[in-house]
Amino acid sequence: MAAAAAAGSPADKERFICIYPAYLNNKKTIAEGRRIPIDKAVENPTSTEIQDVCAAVGFNVLLEKNKMYPREWNRDVQYRGRVRIQLKQDDGNPCLPQFPTRKSVMLYAAETIPKLKTRTQKMGGSDQILQQGEGGKKGKGKKKK
């Protein structure tokens, strides 16, 4: 165990923690890779959103665009990407005291992603589209009668 810890300091890029979008996705089950409670998870987060949130709070962040979560069956660009975050300094202490564990980082990211400007603007547009779709369905129902 000591040999593994001595092999690389926490400041090495290989020792950064990995966060895949599947960890925070409320559309996934635990078996499919979600790692936080479903009520705290986000709908289809992207690696870029996770990177933005973590960089804004002050983490040393690295985005790997072409990496994929092994359990992800969908190969679309939307589901690609992995974010690496430096959680600990060389001496083993957390980089940011309010985030001592990887789970605390994931919960913070999931809490903050819905507040992003890109998310709030998209939500406004999609609500209108949903309302139009519902109106069309009502019309179809009346024709059948």
Structure description:
- This protein is mainly α.
- It has four helices and three strands; from the N terminus they run αβαββαα.
- Strands 1-3-2 form a three-stranded antiparallel sheet, covered by helices on one side.
- It is globular, with a radius of gyration of 19 Å.
- About 6% of the residues have low confidence.
**Helical amount among residues, as a percent range?**
25-40%
Helix and strand content put the structural class at mainly alpha
Name the average pLDDT: 81
Tell me the strand order in the biggest sheet.
1-3-2
Q: What gap, in angstroms, lies between the N and C termini?
A: 72 Å
Global morphology: globular
Number of helices: 4
Low-pLDDT segments: 126-133
Order of helices and strands: HEHEEHH
Based on CA atoms alone, the radius of gyration comes out at 19 Å
Residue fraction in strands: 5-15%
**SS elements, strand count:** 3
Major pleated sheet: 3 strands, antiparallel
List the defining traits of the structure above.
39% helix; mainly alpha; three-stranded antiparallel sheet; 145 residues; 8% strand
Summarize the structure.
The chain is mainly alpha-helical and 145 residues long. The protein has helices at residues 2-7, 47-57, 102-112, 117-144; strands at 17-19, 61-64, 82-85. The chain starts with a helix and ends with a helix.
